[in-house]
């Protein structure tokens, strides 16, 4: 998944990139022996030197004509110049409605997943706002 994300980042930045962060990987379904695996990634947001990339993994079972989502994650990559120093990237442009929708879905999916993870790690309270541990 990291390699796929790096390829997407490198294509976008047109220069070397390095992984800065990887969000939680959501494992959705197993990949069975004999499945054909497809890994796709795309840049959905940019910062000054960073690119956020969504990576999805799908498995195809050709004998059954089935395809299913198996995993997804979000990565942040930093563009590097020739001296391996962070360097600016272009702002992401979404000239088509399809690209805008893809970006918006990725932004919302990441926000939603971060809220879910934050909620999982919240400390339980006794109902009066005090920690119950």
TrEMBL record:
One of its GO terms (molecular function) is long-chain fatty acyl-CoA hydrolase activity. One of its GO terms (biological process) is acyl-CoA metabolic process. Keywords: Hydrolase. One of its GO terms (cellular component) is cytosol. Residues 101-133 are annotated as: Disordered. Residues 1-83 form the HotDog ACOT-type domain. This is Acyl-CoA thioesterase.
